[in-house]
Amino acid sequence: MNSIILLSALGLGNLFLGFRRSNRLLLPVMMLILGLVLTVNFLDWNQGPQSFFSGMLTIDNFSVAFTGIVLLTALVLVPFSQKYVLDGEANLAEYYSLLLFSMVGAIMLVSYNHLLMLFLGIEILSVAMYVLAGSDKRNMRSNEAALKYFLMGAFFTGILLFGMALVYGATGTFELSSISFAAQNPVNASLRPMLYIGMLLMLLGMAFKVGAAPFHFWTPDVYEGTPTFFTAFMSTVVKVAGFAAWLKLLVQAFPAASAQGVWLPTLTAMCVLTLLVGNVGAVAQTSVKRMLAYSSISHAGYLLIALVAFNGALEGATANGIMFYMLAYSVATVTAFAVLKLVADARHREDYAGFNGLAKTNPLLAFCLTLSMLSLAGIPLTGGFFGKFFVFMSAVENGYIGLVVFAVVMSMVSIYYYLRPIIAMYMRDADDADSAVPVPVTTFQSGALLVLALLTVLLGVLPGLIAGVL
Amino acid sequence: MLTVLLLLWPVTAALLLHFFKGKAARVAALGAALLEFALALYAAGFSGANLARGGDISPKFEFNFSWIASAGINFHVGMDGLSLLLVLLTTLLVPIILLAAFRRNFANESVFYALVLFMQTGLIGVFTAQDAFLFYFMWEVALIPIYFLAGVWGGAERARITFKFFLYTIIGSLFMLAGFVYLYFQTGPTVDGLSAHNASLSAFYNLNLPAETQLWVFWLIFAAFAVKMPIFPFHTWQPDTYTDAPAPATMLLAGIMLKMGIYGCMRWLLPVVPLGVDYWQNLVLILAIIGILYGAIIAIRQPDMKRLIAYSSLSHVGLMIAGVFSLTQLGMQGASIQMLAHGINVVGLFFIADAIERRTGTRNIADLGGLTRQAPVLTVCFLVLLLGTVALPLTNGFVGEFLLLAGVYQYNAWLGAVAGLTIILSSVYLLRMFQRVMLGPDSTHSATFTDLTGAELAVLVPLILLVFLLGLFPNMFLHLSEGSVLGILGEVAKR
Known about the structure:
The complex is a heterodimer.
Chain A: H1 2-17, H2 26-42, E1 50-52, E2 57-59, H3 61-77, H4 82-87, H5 92-111, H6 115-133, H7 140-171, H8 176-184, H9 192-210, H10 218-225, H11 228-253, H12 257-283, H13 288-309, H14 317-347, H15 358-361, H16 363-377, H17 383-397, H18 401-427, H19 443-461, H20 464-467
Antiparallel strand pairs in A: 1-2
Helix pairs in contact in A: 1-2, 1-5, 2-3, 3-5, 3-11, 3-14, 5-6, 5-11, 6-7, 6-11, 7-8, 7-9, 7-10, 9-11, 9-12, 10-11, 10-13, 11-13, 11-14, 12-13, 12-18, 13-14, 13-17, 13-18, 14-16, 14-17, 14-19, 16-18, 16-19, 17-18, 17-19
Chain B: H1 2-16, H2 23-52, E1 60-68, E2 73-79, H3 81-101, H4 109-128, H5 132-152, H6 158-186, H7 201-205, H8 211-228, H9 238-244, H10 247-269, H11 274-300, H12 305-325, H13 329-360, H14 376-389, H15 396-411, H16 413-438, H17 454-472, H18 475-493
Antiparallel strand pairs in B: 1-2
């Protein structure tokens, strides 16, 4: 709760900094804010569930852990906005404040206990993202991305809201545990179809927000058009919060066997489709940014396995698996987008060939991107391996062997496209004079990259550190 | 604790190597590798004395640390005789391979040497792991550096070839991981009761799965080993990769990495799914023997020296696999000592092929000839290693191949007879290569050819001494692995 208040207040304060002519203070202040909120967030660790706003928000270990991932991701991502500072971007204070506000939405999503809060969280998160997607005002692609994201987003928010209304109609409550109770002990059994339709509509809305197939079609275009810095935020923070919210919805509102009978097949089908679309789609891409967009779809697929296989409360092996996966995925994705941004800013291209010879000109960038690609592919020594390992293990334990086999086959496919940047960087030479010069990287950004690399390896070598905390 | 030191020292040294540049990096890397070898020798001396007295065969220098407590996965390492033999092989060959790399001025030298040392950690991890998931983890840790060694410093086709190699091996090992996950869920809880399952070697040995389950679990686990060794028909990545990789990477691949597969079969396959092995034994033996003949026949027709040695390696590995799957003490012991002998010989042969290529700019046998007059020392070294490979008595190859063939013969006389062709065939292609390259009519290169330099001799002399050491005193090494082999056969016999 403290983190919500702090983020809102400091975000507002941050806006005032924008009145100054100089941008120099903004980045350090932003990092300070994030560091402070991150620390404050963990003060709630192991304090037991605390309720706020008449029980509409619950802060427990689950929400603290996921809030931690969101804030940490933002903290390690922010250094890569340094170019905005150096270029004297006029609206930087607004961007930063929008990011802070969107994280308020994300925290609400990981700790809601009431559908109203779910809706508010999604809207707070999304509206900020709509604006940031179009922040490169003079670029047509960015405008297109914002418009697409906004139109689609508004449409699916409508569907989500419609679903909530139907659920409310069937159960008479917005509170998760009461919905669960009402669904198991219906006053009027004839309302059951209405409940299920509402539930399914809500699932569709959530599927859109996390980019799961068949509601993924906006992802590649929006990701590509959005300025890379904000794409990174979109594919990590939005996804982490969205999945945590989805998980809470399924586990706390619809755990009943009869409800599971409806959402389980739907989710399983979505999972298979998402894995297929994400991985096969990524193979065909020539732009690294679009590949990363499809890669984020495919990771939504792996996380859906965890949702399908989930049983029980928001603790234990499966919850830990999802949390670990989210952390490893966020770290790797931030690294990938950060390197992409640095390279694309210098070389003005986002295709694989733009990375040719990077190992010679910028060994550090090449090394960090390699670690990130290996982590996303799930190769040992990186956090991504244990993320997949835990998720797949819990799925096998709960009997979803077929699904896991399919996911493993899909990860074999993914090795193909994750190796392509590595091959370009280490085994090919730059194809034009522009690409033979080193990409400018500040010491500050190098430091941030090293921290990211260290995190990836740490998660990959000592997973026991956080594998059992929930 | 010594095992942990053996594991951590190379990777630490690899990280420290970042602070050295150019020639200093070579020396530092070599120093680190030699120190590692000294550690391994100490361990061998300690255990060897113990084993010679008929002491117990359980793993020594054990270290057990709860790695992922919630899942019952432990960082459990230790060395019994067989592990120790392979740790010795690894720690012995790595300094020699580093020394062999000295003559070449690789770009980014410190990174190159750091990757070799990093790989050593993975290899030692594979040979000492006592937990299935740690074994898998180390298995992949060994793959990543060799991918970059072959991919960054390799020949013109490196991107395509190393990609194929990476994909083949990783898909193979994913099958193994799937097998381990299945077995893991069949095990009981950990000692402390924190987790419902555990993945320790001993838990896997005591599973006693029904026969029909073992039939398919066998292939899951065997897939990884089959690709790594490689056994026919999973070998198609091997000749290209061996040929295109830079010489030190080829030596690592052929000298040490393929032993991971054979060791894996002995430790993680035979005792875990004995009934599966019982059922598929004939098929694997036949594939292994096809591999022997296939590799040998292609080697006879091979115009490229490096490729010829690659195919000869395929052929010799086939015999080792056959020995292991004969499930006899002779065959297993033969495989153990042959792993050592083959590592020494193949590293030496690749080194000589590389030395000749560096002087003449070609590996093509037809372009060479009459080199012996200018290079008598090289000729002698070449001949010794070659005779070791064709298993002449008194050389290291003889002991291994003799035991291997005896083991296969014991299992089935006909298979033994066919496998025995390997000795004839290998002398055909190796002596033919020697004759065409070193003897024969003078070629354009023979006048300008130069003999071995001191640095090159420093690589070859230890190898040649070892050829004779193993050939004359094989018992030193056979003692080391005997207890482990008997233990494995005992587990297999419990079926």
